[in-house]
Amino acid sequence: MTVSIVILAMIAAFLGMRLYSVLGRRAEHGEEPVQSRLDAQASAAPAALPLPERAVAGSVRPRELGAVLPGVERGLREIISVDRRFDPVTFVEGARSAYRMVLDAFWRGDRAQLSLLCDAEVARSFIDAIDTREAAGETFNNSLVRIEETQIVGASYAAPFARVSVRFVADVAAVTRDREGKVIAGSLNDAVEVRDVWTFRRDIHSADPDWLLEETDEG
Predict the structure, then answer these.
(1) Which of 22, 86, 155, 199 could make an SS bond with 165 (beta carbons 3.0 to 4.6 A apart)?
(2) pLDDT for 128-149, tens place per residue?
(3) CA 115 → CA 65, 72, 95, 106, 162, distances in Å?
């Protein structure tokens, strides 16, 4: 009798562990709208860092992608179909880093860095703004306090280019100083909310894994 009870207890424990292993994995991914709706290879396949490899990715949980509209999901599927390494979650991590790097480069007046991170037209617009600022003797003393929200709001593939648009909601502390270093606008004590939609582009057939900033807009 004692032996039978022990055997039954072991079987029950084994079944309980199996049940937990299945339900546990499902629960862990229950809040991942993009991961659950895209093909399995999007989350399973290893992906090269999709935005500049020099970027240090921030911490982004899958659910931070938010609900994906049908048109966006369709675009992501198209990109995945031609680039099995593409992973939306990893992409958003890189996009957050790229957002910070581009803003920092613009505020510092780092033209070389902007040329690496942006396509020629966008880089030129940033550089023109830097030239104007420097000609006026003004400098920026800005800081990206935090990125509150990052969400993919557009995706498409038109050979050979994949394009993904990301909405950023961030808090920025901004100060503009004149030639004498006097504050003429803004305050480092009061961060303001900014909303941007940036579109990144990559040639899928290129060996270069980096995505370039192709367009900026207010979100």
Answers:
(1) 199
(2) 999 999 999 999 999 999 999 9
(3) 28, 28, 17, 11, 20
